[in-house]
Amino acid sequence: MPSTQNPRTYRVKSFGCQMNVYDGERMAELLAEQGIAAAPEGEDADLVVLNTCHIREKAAEKVYSDIGRLRRADGSSPLIAVAGCVAQAEGNEIMKRAPAVKMVVGPQAYHRLPDMIREAGEGRRVTDTDMPAETKFGALPKRRRSGPTAFLTVQEGCDRFCTYCVVPYTRGAEVSRPYADLVDEAKRLVDAGAREIMLLGQNVNAWTGEDARGRRVGLDGLIRELAGIADLARIRYTTSHPNDMADGLIAAHAEVEKLMPYLHLPVQAGSDRVLKAMNRSHTAESYLKVLDKVRAARPDIALSGDFIVGFPGETDAEFEDTLKLVDAVGYAQCFSFKYSPRAGTPAATMAGQVPAEVMTERILRLQAALGRDQTAFNQASVGKTCDVLVERKGKFPGQWLGKSPWLQSVYFDGDVTVGDLVTVELTEAGYNAISARLLSPAHP
Ligand code: SAH
Ligand code: SF4
Ligand code: F3S
Fold this sequence. Notes:
- Helix content is 33%, strand content 24%.
- The chain is an alpha/beta fold.
- The chain has four domains: 2-133, Rossmann fold, CATH 3.40.50.12160; 142-260, 2-Layer Sandwich (Transcription Regulator spoIIAA); 270-381, Transcription Regulator spoIIAA; 385-438, CATH 2.40.50.140.
- It has a six-stranded parallel sheet with strand order 2-1-3-4-5-6, sandwiched between helices. Strands 17-18-19-21-20 form a five-stranded mixed barrel.
- Residues 55-56, 158, 164-165, 167, 202-203, 239, 241, 266, 268, 306, 308, 337, 339-340, 342 line the site of S-adenosyl-L-homocysteine.
């Protein structure tokens, strides 16, 4: 009989951004330390943590349907904790709407889960959405497990307050984790098998810290230090704000071999009036200038971005400016979204909310353009020889799947294993993936 009083198994389900995935991993490690085991695939867990995302409407609605789906055939429910950004934004509402939820825990408070589980076991419903001054990271267990690619959150929160966005409210003010802690965590991840580390932050390139000699450094300083870890082969970072692309970081793209040629730099829109209304504090031109500098440092860099269509007041002509910007950049990969009004953000009450059908028409046009560019970028890679970090088996026997330096999914056949860094020749490309021929294990 599954126990909600003294849970023996857990499942953590993370939605949203990579930082949520990172938090989910750390919650899992914390629960494991309490002697709670991961529930085997396909089996009910005693404790379910829904690690939620609040960025767009559907993301939040999903939480309630997920809670409903956790109800078992006999009418009972596991012990349910709602974590993440919906927990932070709508904790009280969740407690009211979903009696099955016994715990609500915000992104800055999840180190307190063990105590909350104890209280919930005593029959109480507990909410903790504090943003305590003490950092949760110090209270979490040290990292001991890792796949070939690892996430490492270096910076949390956002001070930028784009007028459409909930992140500054759900994640709080910008905080950089200390340099020494990050170097230590990175080394542990590499010892546990990581070959690639993705540095994460809502505004990752705003990270700053003091290096071992007490000098103030930016993200490039941290990247240069991590590049010294012998068994670490690749470093990436995401997500960056255009205004925080410091010259030092751009130079690192030219100088640090382990820093991969990929940059996710969201622009959101191509019209300066819309960008101003979004409070983005950059223009289309200043954004393109940053990209020029990045390309001068690393000519083969793969560029990626985020777009919002149908921001309140966006006219057809302003949307055309977004398409023009897309043409000017030639992205390798992008994410695009219909504007979703979020309660409590300034844009939600702005005049000129764009009708749904207009948004649909715009996003289809945008995605067609982005899809064309992504396919073109992949096809231009054909014939190149590059490293691939092997991530998992492919669909067919003997087939493997990994990532190119430009973050493309690459398939090939060969006698390799997960975590290998191999050399391939890219042979055929489509929109989503590239097939390749194995040349040699790069690091046998
Ligand atoms: N910190 C990052 C990412 C924030 S969220 C950044 O500043 O770029 C990821 C993306 O979700 C954003 O870049 C934006 O494109 C999209 N997004 C955020 N709020 C949104 C909203 N209310 N409606 C639609 N898309 C949104
Ligand atoms: Fe949201 Fe803007 Fe901050 Fe990105 S920079 S997290 S879009 S407020
Ligand atoms: Fe979603 Fe929160 Fe990340 S709203 S995108 S989980 S920061």
